[in-house]
Specification:
The complex is a heterodimer of chains A (725) and B (189). Chain A has 725 residues and is α+β, with helices and mostly antiparallel strands. Chain A contains 25 helices and 23 strands. In chain B, 53% of the residues lie in helices and 6% in strands. Chain B starts with a helix and ends with a helix. The chains are: A alpha+beta (725), B mainly alpha (189). Chain A: InterPro entries: HATPase_C_sf (IPR036890), HATPase_dom (IPR003594), Heat_shock_protein_90_CS (IPR019805), HSP90_C (IPR037196), Hsp90_fam (IPR001404), Hsp90_N (IPR020575), Ribosomal_Su5_D2-typ_SF (IPR020568).
């Protein structure tokens, strides 16, 4: 008997064991199969993304979801009890930042989604890049993707990526205690710009924009070299970090869960979410899936409808009886949640320019740059030949202000090699004076896993860089010429136009700034720096520059100046000084006014250094009217008069020279003065007055200042009454 | 005895040396007197631009030829052809070289640039060359100016047709630095 009981017990025990084992196995399978999807319903801990999710759309049966009800993706309070929670304070600037964000009346809240998607994509780029030299980096999770889902029951919106993830230290550094260098600078920029939140991404603190729509943010993250951690915060002065008591459910990557504010719950609406995500994810290279509910409606006979009710392929099936009692059919509404792939297209820069609409270029620019406005111009350049590459270059409508250059995230050009982002902080790819452009360059010809230093020395990269710079300058030149042509055509039209109304319209159009003029106004300092620095492209750049002149208070190009030169004029004359008004009155200008010879007015500090480096323009040399000798063709009569005057005044000249011998190098009779009694000129090869002034501003050493002071020449006007006396 | 040997050698030397020198006329050369423009201008003075252009053409040709000989595999035509990134890099380095081996000297009262690739006609037996100062920067800028004007592709194509073709591309032609018009102006000066 004992044996039989034993056997019975064993039998029952094994049954129980088997059942338990089955359940575990079954649960494991569920985990394996359903991972993320069920998790987003707030029900599972399982983060196993993608082993099963090979197809573009994945259906999860309602049964499987029901089982997931027991498993939680969002950590429950009870589970937290077992965790050792560290509570930390935010750095003060971060608190200030969060205050501003939380209280902002910012209307474009969807900037948060762009930022979180962008961060997710960055994390994926990082792990892909690591995997190039270390394949094992992808072992935990081979798929590289982003998943977005909404849990309507709990008002939670989640964005999950299988990117590089964060270690515990990364979490603390990146999300709170050590304010990134961008934070205080962003705060400054915000106060200046009147609260333009859209800048946030440029300062590397885009993550905090999550608080625009959420009052609590929870971040789950798993890095290859650390355990899974949880970070949570409610936008007050502190945040908590703890090891996830559920273990490494994510495998690798990060999941950001936004517990939405009441006024943001519309984000959970499928259509709204879809539109929003679609806008930004078109340009992300990694597949982005959105958990999306599809509703199928059918009209069927009541009996068949009954059968459909139990269809396991759908999450819910609802039968809506017909209002017409005579109708034999009923309406069946079947709902199913699927992962919808939102970005099927190739990255925009790999597509043919002909296929892409201006709207798409604009959207890409907004995602790339973080600006909310339109670029002034874009260049989609597909280079062929020995070195092939594709690039899109944008000219933003605003230049980074001189302060911003220091702390704006330096991702001017994103460099891709065979679709792997190699460097997005590639400051040295284009010369400094071109640092205002933004864009993407993708080349198959570059090596993938080299250090940044090696890449910068790379010959192919240097060649690509040269070609892009040339292309940009050529495009600018073309824009300038087109603008000029259009203006001339408009002027002709205006003259012919008799109708007053139409004429007014045309005049308004004429006064609108051309694309080139807008670009030039925003970036002229950069171009002029280029004129000074870039020996290779100087002759191209100088053709793009515009200057005000004695006869033109609205800037003109050197082409226009040369066109209007007098036919025996040998030089392009210029004067440098602090302002247009100042220069209009200098005595050295007098002879030019009299002879109606135009003179360039150089008022920016970089103007004269730039011009001095230009050897000649259209065969003409540049000459400063404030230095050296001014010579015009003199008639025989004039030459004789000059000789006579020199003799006459010799005594006076000697006396003045002697009196001023410490300050003046020599005294001469002037050829350039008409009304003024005298003027001070610099020697031909010395520094002009303006240059000297500027250099003195930058130097504090008195000795150096003395060394730099050029020799001065005093010119006297032989015709002036004072001199004659 | 011991002293006499060195003394003897000294005497021999003393006799030999004056004897050696005495056979030849003394050679003199003076450093070129540079005018203000030559000393202070930011640019290559006009009368030296032809020389400068030729120096640049020579350096470009030499560096390209050297790079070509380093290639191991000639293409089907038996010609060694550099790839775009290589010749771009070679030309870039040709311009950023240090140029210290070039300078100015005065021969027959005419100031000329002198250095590798610039000798023409009989060389004077002795001359004084002024190097350094503004000359390396001026040559480097001249080189980059031509590189920007014509572009690497065009320059390499001309190079492949021969050294003469490269020089005439950069320096010849009606607007070139060595054109007839320019040499006429030089004579005026």
């Amino acid at each position: 008997m004992k044996l039989k009981t034993l056997y019975t017990y064993l039998f029952v025990a094994s049954f129980l064991l088997y059942d338990w084992a089955q359940h575990s196995v079954h649960v494991l399978c569920e985990e394996v199969v359903n991972g993320n999807e069920a998790a987003d319903l707030g029900n599972t801990t399982n983060r196993n993304l993608g082993t099963d999710l090979n197809t573009e759309e994945n259906t999860v049966t309602s049964e499987e979801i029901k089982k997931e009800d027991d498993l939680l993706a969002e950590i429950e309070e009870s589970e937290k009890e077992s965790a050792i929670i560290e509570n930390l304070q935010y750095q003060t600037e971060v608190t200030r930042l969060m205050d501003i964000i939380v209280n902002s009346l910012y209307t474009h809240k969807d900037v948060f989604l762009r930022e979180l998607i962008s961060n997710a994509a960055d994390a994926l780029e990082k792990i892909r890049f690591i995997a190039v030299s270390d394949e094992s980096a992808l072992d935990e999770e081979k798929k590289l993707e982003i998943r977005i889902s909404a849990n309507k029951n709990k008002n939670i919106l989640s964005i999950t990526d299988t990117g590089v993830g964060m270690t515990k230290d990364d979490l603390i550094t990146n999300l709170g205690t050590i304010a990134k260098s961008g934070t205080s600078n962003f705060l400054e920029a915000i106060s200046k710009s009147g609260g333009d939140m859209s800048l946030i991404g440029q300062f590397g603190v885009g993550f905090y924009s999550a608080f625009l729509v959420a009052d609590k943010v929870v971040v789950y993250t798993k890095h290859n070299s650390d355990d899974q951690y949880v970070w949570e915060s409610t936008a007050d002065a502190k945040f908590s970090i703890y090891k996830d008591p559920r273990g490494n459910t994510l495998k690798r990557g990060t999941r950001i869960s936004l517990h939405l504010k009441e006024d943001a719950t519309n984000l959970l609406n499928d259509k709204k979410l879809m539109d929003l995500v679609a806008k930004y994810c078109q340009f992300i290279q990694y597949p982005i899936y959105l958990l999306h509910e599809t509703v199928y409606t059918e009209e069927v006979i009541a009996d068949i409808a009954k059968e459909m009710e139990n269809d396991k392929n759908y999450d819910s099936v609802k039968i809506i009886p017909s209002e017409d009692p005579n109708k034999k059919t009923v309406t069946v509404e079947k709902r199913v949640k699927k992962w919808k792939l939102l970005n099927e297209q190739k990255p925009i820069w790999l597509r043919s320019p002909k296929e892409i609409t201006p709207e798409e270029y604009k959207n890409f620019f907004q995602v790339l740059s973080g600006f909310n406005d339109e670029p002034l111009h874009y260049i989609h350049f597909v280079a062929e030949g020995e070195i092939e590459f594709k690039c899109i270059i944008y000219i933003p409508s605003r230049s980074p202000s001189s302060n911003d250059q220091l702390f704006v995230k330096q991702n001017f050009i994103k460099l891709y090699v065979r679709r792997v982002l190699v460097a997005d902080e590639f400051v040295e790819f284009l010369p400094r004076y071109m640092s205002f452009v933004k864009g993407v360059v993708d080349s198959d010809d570059l090596p993938l896993n080299v250090s940044r230093e090696q890449l910068q020395q790379n010959k192919i990269l240097k060649t690509i860089s040269k070609r892009i710079v040339r292309k940009i300058l050529d495009v600018f030149r073309k824009l300038y010429l087109d603008g000029k042509k259009n203006k001339e055509a408009l002027k002709e039209q205006i003259e012919k136009e008799e109708d007053e109304e139409k004429k007014k319209e045309l005049v308004t159009k004429l006064n609108e700034a051309s694309t080139y003029k807008k670009i030039y106004t925003e970036y002229k300092k950069y171009l002029k720096s280029g004129c000074y620095e870039d020996d290779l492209n100087r002759s191209k750049i100088v053709k793009l520059l515009l200057f005000k002149t004695m006869l033109h208070s609205k800037s003109i190009s050197l082409d226009t100046y040369v066109e209007n030169m007098q036919h025996d004029q040998k030089f392009i004359y210029y004067a440098s000084g602090e302002s247009y008004n100042y220069l209009s009155k200098i005595p050295q200008l007098q002879i030019f006014k009299k002879k109606n010879i135009d003179v360039l007015f150089l008022t920016e500090s970089v103007d004269e250094p730039c011009i001095q480096r230009v050897q000649e323009y259209d065969g003409k040399k540049f000459k400063s009217i404030q230095k050296g000798e001014i010579s015009f063709e003199l008639t025989e009569q004039e030459k004789e008069k000059e000789e006579k005057v020199k003799k006459m005044y010799k005594v006076l000249i000697d006396v003045i020279a002697d009196t001023l011998k410490n300050q003046i190098f020599k005294v001469e009779i002037s050829r350039r003065l008409v009304d003024a009694p005298c003027a001070v000129i610099s020697t031909e090869w010395g520094l002009s007055g303006q240059m000297e002034k500027l250099m003195k501003m930058n130097v504090n050493n008195a000795e150096q200042i003395r060394a730099m002071s050029g020799q001065k020449i005093l010119e006297i006007n032989a015709d002036h009454p004072i001199m004659i006396d | 005895m011991r002293l006499s040997l060195p003394l003897l050698l000294l005497l021999l030397g003393a006799w030999a040396i004056p004897g050696g020198l005495g056979d030849r006329a003394p050679l003199t050369a003076t450093a070129p007197q540079l005018d203000d423009e030559e000393m202070y201008s930011a640019h290559m003075p006009a009368h030296l631009r032809c020389d400068a252009c030729r120096a640049v053409a020579y350096q470009m040709w030499q560096n390209l030829a050297k790079a070509e000989t380093k290639l191991h595999t000639p293409n089907f035509g038996g010609r060694r052809e550099l790839s775009e990134s290589v010749y771009t890099d070679v030309l870039d380095r040709s311009c950023s070289r240090n140029w210290q081996d070039y300078g100015v000297r005065e021969v027959d009262q005419v100031k000329r640039l002198t250095g590798p690739g610039l000798s023409e006609g009989p060389e004077p037996s002795i001359s004084v060359m002024v190097t350094g100062g503004p000359w390396p920067t001026r040559l480097s800028r001249t080189c980059l100016h031509y590189l920007g004007e014509f572009g690497e592709d065009q320059i390499y194509e001309a190079h492949q047709q021969g050294q003469g073709a490269l020089e005439s591309l950069l320096c010849g032609g009606p607007q070139g630095a060595c054109s007839e018009k320019v040499s006429a102006t030089r004579e005026e000066l």
